[in-house]
Amino acid sequence: MADPVQPVDVVVVTVVGDDRDVLGAIAGAAIDARLAACGQVGGPVTSVYRWEGAAETAEEWTLTLKTAADRTDELVALVVDRHPYDVPEVLVAPLAGGHAPYLDWVRAETRPAR
């Protein structure tokens, strides 16, 4: 029998950037600081957006980080500090539920080091 889905205090933080290696370094820093339990860099994706009054198209990568909700502010601060964009895309999405053992792992891995 599968473990029950439980209410969560875990969030997903999505970051977009034009350099896969930079996003990987951000993920590594977040893991080392115990601000995220894991991160995946995926892509490339084609982003179409308006910037400084002009329509733009760019190849970008997506970094997805999982963290405990109470670590979100520190994680976002780390991402913004290390991201090369003037206005980086950093989105935080709460989860409605998830696999209980995985969520427990995310919580455990994002506790500050003792």
In what range is the share of β-strand residues?
A: 35-45%
For the record, the CATH architecture stands as 2-Layer Sandwich
> What's the number of domains?
1
Structural category: alpha+beta
Instruction: Enumerate how many helices there are, as a single number.
Output: 3
> What ranges have pLDDT less than 50 throughout 5 or more consecutive residues?
none
CATH fold description: Alpha-Beta Plaits
Radius of gyration: 15 Å
The proportion of residues forming helix, as a percent range, comes to 25-40%
Q: How many E-type strands?
A: 4
Which descriptor suits the 3D outline?
A: globular
Mean pLDDT: 94
The secondary-structure element order is EHEEHEH
Distance between the termini: 35 Å
Strand order of the largest sheet: 2-3-1-4
